[in-house]
Amino acid sequence: MRVDIWYSFLPSNTTIFAESGYVAYTGVGNPTNIIPSVAGQKHYRPQMRFTVQAAGKTDVGRVRANNEDNFGYDVDCQVFVLCDGMGGEAAGEIASSLTVNKILAYFRDGRFPVEAQPEDEDLPESARLLRSAIRVANQAVYKEASANPEHTGMGTTVVAVLFGEDSFAVAHLGDSRLYRVRGDAIEQLTNDHSVVMEQVRRGLLTIEEAGRSQMQNLITRALGLRESVEPELGSHPVHAGDLLLLCSDGFSRFVPEKKTLELLAQSKDLQQCCDSLVEAAKELGSDDNITCVLVRVLAES
């Protein structure tokens, strides 16, 4: 993603699959940063009644020269992250990679410093943990950009999911999305932090007009551009059979929800589904990097 960040609306070709262990992969070429679980290492262990499967795929697409998308997950910790970087040269790749790795490391390290806020009384622990992990990642990206002039202005979107006992939390910044498929219905669970979607929410544009706008790539919130950041948080009940889709805008801007449902119905294999989703985005004219992560909630464990 190569975009400008607008603050005028601010409110104040590689496949990876794992059913256990830690996965994090960046860019194109040989996967060099797939890190196995280490015996005796501390992990965040959610008290969850369900088990999950996950798969993901990132693709540079047909237009970009490099891949600034990143994703990673740890099925043991039940945390899933997708980022879409921005910045000159390779800065977007650095920002998105650093963010994915910092968030996953936060839960793998087993130490969870959480900043309490007055409004946190009704906020689930999983949401507070995600917020803290994103703040840690933000500090790392901001520090890297401040220390290296060639990385000035780098940042990334982020959408992250963390499961709890009978629900999951989502935290996001930017226009990377989370969808939930339940039965034959698909629902977008995140609100894009973008100029056009803010205009839609204000009644200034219709969804159809937003889809044709030349400003679709202009986002209003991102990680790493400021010293502090406040992600949007949500919490949702989880049911056996739920399927979650995390995706970058290289997918969501080009593949309609109806088409997404059709593709997901064609196979029970999550990796095949990821492959199909990415190929569909390319065939439908995506001009960006494309990344999809699927998480399936299985029966009670």
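Above is the first protein from milestone M3; the second protein from the same milestone is given next.
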Amino acid sequence: MSHRVGFDPREYSDDVSLPAVRLRRTSPQASEATNRKIRVLIVDDDISVRSALEAVLRLQPDVEVIGFSGDGADAVVFAEREKPDVVVLDLLLPKMDGAEAAKSIAVRSGVVMVSGSPEYSHKTGALDVVDAFLSKPVDPQRLVQAVRRANRAAESRRRLLPRTIKAP
């Protein structure tokens, strides 16, 4: 099944040889209050969808795509190691589905869930831990809005987290 996000993904055919996780080394900058870019991990098993999502986000001056993954298990490892601000996560993934991955990722990062099968999300409980849910094909403007909203939600959780955990 082909997914489009307002451009021809064949323009990005050089990305076909991507490993399961591709990391763009960037140094985290200051907080959003000082105009820091939102660091985003894109997770989808369809390379054309990953490329399309990247193309949309790359046009935003406040967003930086720091890596890619094609499965949920690798996404969890990547998110723990690189601590992206937001993870754009497909619902149906190999190794570990997006709903299960979101439960681990949402503790630290904002989660924007995307799916070509939105009816499946209600069965998994995925909506309980995500900040936004978008159906494929993803509207570019809604994607950008969802990433920004998920980033704000994750920042709020990170500020509250130290206060809610009490030492034994």
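Note on the second protein: The CA atoms of residues 156 and 162 lie 11 Å apart.
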